[in-house]
């Protein structure tokens, strides 16, 4: 194809993209990589329509996968609800407000279009707004009984209304904070006065507790459970027996419900599944988009449980993708075992079983391997340290509270979560007394 033809083809594609509805575009473009998706956004006449059609979780994943400059461009197109979801994940570490995260996002918010900032500030929970501003502002009020000239020397220089005077303990944030205060003042003066009065009175623990309560409620709608509920994914409740006895059966539990069932499907959970895995092969065989959408939503729900149970940080892209890779790896192992490696049988399992049930089956397979390894070590004179390399290294990782596969003994950079039944078979082969020495020689 010549240069002119290529340009014409690209222009035709761009026109067709601009004619499509935002929801159709989200479904068509969902499988693209974050960078490719961002490239399409930049080619649209009304990119904000497509961006705001994204589920909050997809939007957040996209911002984490892009560079800071690209993410800022994306954030400038976001809805208030999408920005609120970012704040829910970035402003907190566990159940405590995270000052460094808030400071970073105060700078980001100050760079967004003024109408977008005003919508956000007037929509945030007032308790959160006060709690997040408190570490970075010192607010004083005038004493009505004292002449201003006499009092002026004791008041900070910055004020918008000659009532509240503001000092900025963090000079690096001063310009951003001024921009945000001015945006709030112009958007809703009464609300501005309410917020400033609360800041002048000092932060009560009730503010942070209320903000945390509202945050938990929003995240629960996204599939983030409490810690005790999240730990259930690692409990042995006979799931191996149930699935082995009846590999294909009606759905065992209902799918998680999300806050907006009519929203565009989630795309990000399927992006980290290895192309070579049986799980991926099964997904590629699905002909019903509803099955694919349901699996993606269930996988997101499961990954969020893993984040909570494993004390991962959802604001870190590495932890976000780690939870998805762990979920897909354990599911892949379950599909390999229950479907005997056959894509057709495994696809039936994927359609008829809940994703979390398959995950728990895969986890129980790894626990079964760990029990075998512990029995082997107890019988082996000298204990684990005398097993030599690579078995001692492998078993140390396997015996951790959350078992890992010592992929570093096979050329990878570090241990990781199990991804394939072959890794279980490999360790079982090393545990075979009759071939132990030969196994070491073959590594």
SS class: mainly alpha
Counting DSSP H or I runs of 4 or more residues, the number of helices is 24
Strand order of the largest sheet: 3-5-4
**Span from first to last CA?**
49 Å
Order of helices and strands: HHHHHHHEEHHHEHEEHHHHHHHHHHHHH
How many individual β-strands? 5
Instruction: Please estimate the helix content.
Output: 55-70%
Q: What would the average pLDDT be, to the nearest integer?
A: 87
Unreliable segments (pLDDT under 50, ≥5 consecutive)? 1-10
The tally of domains stands at 3
Radius of gyration using CA atoms only: 27 Å
Write down the overall geometry. Answer: globular
Query: What percent strand?
Result: under 5%
Largest sheet: 3 strands, antiparallel
How does the SSE layout of this entry go?
Blueprint: H1 3-19, H2 22-29, H3 34-43, H4 47-53, H5 56-65, H6 68-75, H7 80-90, E1 92-93, E2 96-97, H8 99-110, H9 114-123, H10 126-133, E3 138-141, H11 148-151, E4 158-159, E5 164-167, H12 174-187, H13 189-201, H14 205-221, H15 227-230, H16 239-245, H17 278-285, H18 289-309, H19 317-338, H20 343-352, H21 355-379, H22 391-398, H23 421-430, H24 436-442
Antiparallel strand pairs: 1-2, 3-5, 4-5
Could you write a compact summary of the structure shown?
The protein has 443 residues and is mostly helical. Helix content is 61%, strand content 3%. The protein is built from 24 helices and five strands.
């Amino acid at each position: 194809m010549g240069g002119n033809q290529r340009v014409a083809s690209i222009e035709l594609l761009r026109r067709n993209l601009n004619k499509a509805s935002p929801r159709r575009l989200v479904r068509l473009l969902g499988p693209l990589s974050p960078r490719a998706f961002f490239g399409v956004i930049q080619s649209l006449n009304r990119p904000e329509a497509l961006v705001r059609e994204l589920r909050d979780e997809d939007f957040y994943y996209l911002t984490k996968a892009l560079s800071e400059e690209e993410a800022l461009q994306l954030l400038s197109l976001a809805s208030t609800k999408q920005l609120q979801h970012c704040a829910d994940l970035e402003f907190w570490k566990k159940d405590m407000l995270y000052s460094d995260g808030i400071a970073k996002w105060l700078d980001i918010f100050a760079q967004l279009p003024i109408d977008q900032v005003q919508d956000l500030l007037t929509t945030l929970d007032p308790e959160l707004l006060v709690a997040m501003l408190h570490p970075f502002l010192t607010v004083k009020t005038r004493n009505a009984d004292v002449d201003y000239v006499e009092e002026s020397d004791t008041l900070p220089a910055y004020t918008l209304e000659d009532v509240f005077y503001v000092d900025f303990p963090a000079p690096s944030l001063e310009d951003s904070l001024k921009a945000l205060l001015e945006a709030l003042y112009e958007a809703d003066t009464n609300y501005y006065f309410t917020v400033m009065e609360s800041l002048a009175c000092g932060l009560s623990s009730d503010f942070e507790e209320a903000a945390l309560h509202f945050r938990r409620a929003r995240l629960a709608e996204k599939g983030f459970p409490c810690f005790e509920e999240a730990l259930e994914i690692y409990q042995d409740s006979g799931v191996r027996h149930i699935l082995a006895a009846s590999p294909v059966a009606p759905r065992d539990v209902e799918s998680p419900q999300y806050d907006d069932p009519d929203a565009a499907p989630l795309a990000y959970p399927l992006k980290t599944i290895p192309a070579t895995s049986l799980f991926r092969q099964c997904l590629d065989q699905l002909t019903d988009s509803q099955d694919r959408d349901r699996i993606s939503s269930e996988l997101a729900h499961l990954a969020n449980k893993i984040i909570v149970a494993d004390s991962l940080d959802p604001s870190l892209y590495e932890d976000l993708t780690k939870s998805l890779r762990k979920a897909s790896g354990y599911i892949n192992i379950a599909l390999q075992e229950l479907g005997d490696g056959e894509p057709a049988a495994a696809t039936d399992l994927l359609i008829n079983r809940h994703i979390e049930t398959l995950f728990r089956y895969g986890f129980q397979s790894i626990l079964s391997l760990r029990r075998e390894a512990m029995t082997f070590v107890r019988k082996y004179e000298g204990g684990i340290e005398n097993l030599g390399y690579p078995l001692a290294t492998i078993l140390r990782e396997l015996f951790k509270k959350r078992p890992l596969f010592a992929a570093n003994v096979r050329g990878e950079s570090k241990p990781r979560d199990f991804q394939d039944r072959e890794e279980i078979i490999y360790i079982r082969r090393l545990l075979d007394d009759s071939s132990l020495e030969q196994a070491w020689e073959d590594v």
